[in-house]
């Protein structure tokens, strides 16, 4: 507001002399902010429009992305198909899925692990009821170049009497060792079972990729 005439109207001709305080107050006024916002949202400001659209649809985008991820895991589809599934979903009408940018191999892997941790308590609870169990383990390298041991557990669900294979754990192999040798991997597996309160005596099978250290 112009403090001299108490009006929000300003002269159309530029002033030669002005008070710094008046300019500063105008720059923080709601009227000025509205004018700036309108300018940014003008037809020429496509970047601002995309930014606004991205922010409004952020929650929906993440929800549908994780829903697609869950379907991929539930149907035991290769995780490499996740990004192509998102492309199909986008073509089917969910155009805002184009804003989901976490599609690299490392990002997808992190999402799968996160989802695995979310369902892990229920998996462990069911596995504890089983009479026997088997483990599928594999050594992988994460995006930070850390050696990780991923474990999946196979057991008979006592509620449905069906054989199930579920994610169990992932651990940094070199967290407490300097070498990813057989002894280290054994220690990690034992720790995984212990952390989940699973009886190692029920372990009746172990599946690996055939590496010499395993």
List the helices and strands and how they pair.
Layout: H1 20-27, H2 30-40, H3 46-56, H4 58-74, H5 82-91, H6 105-129, E1 133-141, E2 147-156, E3 163-172, H7 182-195, E4 203-207
Parallel strand pairs: 1-4
Antiparallel strand pairs: 1-2, 2-3
Protein name: DUF4371 domain-containing protein
Domain DUF4371: 118-213
InterPro entries: DUF4371
Describe the structure.
This protein has 214 residues and is of the alpha+beta class. The protein is elongated and about 90 Å long. Helix content is 45%, strand content 16%. The chain has a four-stranded mixed sheet with strand order 3-2-1-4. Strand 2 and strand 3 (163-172) form a beta hairpin. The mean pLDDT is 81. Residues 118-213 form the DUF4371 domain. InterPro entries: DUF4371.
Percent helix range: 40-55%
Q: Tally the beta strands.
A: 4
Strand content: 15-25%
Largest sheet: 4 strands, mixed
H/E element order: HHHHHHEEEHE
Low-confidence stretches at least 5 residues in length (pLDDT < 50)? Answer: none
Descriptive key words:
214 residues, elongated, alpha+beta
Summary, kept brief:
The protein is of the alpha+beta class and 214 residues long.
């Amino acid at each position: 507001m112009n403090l001299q005439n108490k009006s929000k109207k300003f002269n159309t001709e530029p002033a030669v002399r002005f008070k710094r305080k008046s300019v500063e107050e105008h720059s923080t006024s709601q009227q000025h902010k509205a004018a700036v916002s309108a300018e940014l949202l003008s037809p020429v400001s496509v970047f601002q429009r995309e930014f606004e659209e991205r922010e409004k649809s952020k929650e929906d985008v993440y929800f549908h992305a994780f829903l697609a991820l869950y379907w991929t895991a539930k149907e035991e589809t290769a995780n490499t198909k996740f990004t192509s599934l998102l492309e199909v979903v986008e073509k089917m009408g969910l155009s805002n899925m184009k804003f989901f940018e976490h599609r690299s191999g490392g990002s997808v892997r992190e999402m799968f692990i996160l989802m695995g941790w979310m369902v892990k308590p229920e998996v462990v609870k069911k596995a504890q009821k089983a009479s026997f169990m088997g483990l599928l383990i594999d050594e992988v390298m994460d995006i930070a170049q850390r050696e990780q041991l991923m474990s999946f557990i196979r057991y008979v669900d006592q509620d449905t009497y069906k054989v199930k294979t579920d994610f169990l754990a992932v651990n940094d192999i070199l967290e407490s060792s300097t070498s990813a040798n057989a002894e280290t991997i054994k220690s990690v597996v034992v720790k995984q079972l212990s952390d989940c309160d699973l009886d190692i005596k029920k372990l009746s099978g172990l599946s690996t990729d055939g590496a010499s250290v395993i």
